[in-house]
Design a protein that fits this description.
70% of the residues lie in helices and 0% in strands. With 227 residues, the chain is an all-alpha fold.
Length: 227
Amino acid sequence: MRPDDSDKSSDSDWDDPSELDWSEFDWEKYLREQDEVLLRYLGFYGLLRDHPQRLDEVAKLMGWDVEAWNAALEEDDEEEDEADETDESLQPYTLQKNPVYVATQALFLSLTRPWEILTEKNRQLVAADTMPYLAALYRSQQQCLHAVQALDFGDFTMAVSLLKRTLRELNDALARLPQQLALPDYPSFREDATRRLFDLREVCLRVMGECRYEATRPADSEEDEGK
């Protein structure tokens, strides 16, 4: 998952969303579609939760690995593909389309929402049991979001610094996840949450590596690739 692996194109007339003559309804429809992308990611992740390379496999199913994606769809109707590409090209590029944003925000969603449901169902839990973990998770999500924004603007070194902060908060969240709660369904929840926290760490570490590569790559090599 490379930091620049997105549909953004500098030559597109749709790069700047502020130039779009869209109403609030148009933007709401667009944002709902992007919410569906997060759910689609989580759907693939749930199917592959026990796969040792689940992050890579989900990325392929999301179409981020172009070669693997094309191979998986080679039997699809070409006309239908062309229609989908045309519809996609009419949409603006926003942060919500960044693959790093989708992967991380989807995983954060899958960590926070089940915890909220768990605490709502078990009102006997006290704040000391529930809030430290949720607060650390929130802090890590905020740092991660800032990192993706820096990434989207090409500020690779800043993105690395923010991802390091994200990792620190993720480690804190993992430490604050209660070892035991007197709930019958908690052990399975904790096992699943731990797996997803480590997957978030893996995404951050991978992106940090790519950012460091991009930050140190000579400018001439970028020009050569464009030729």
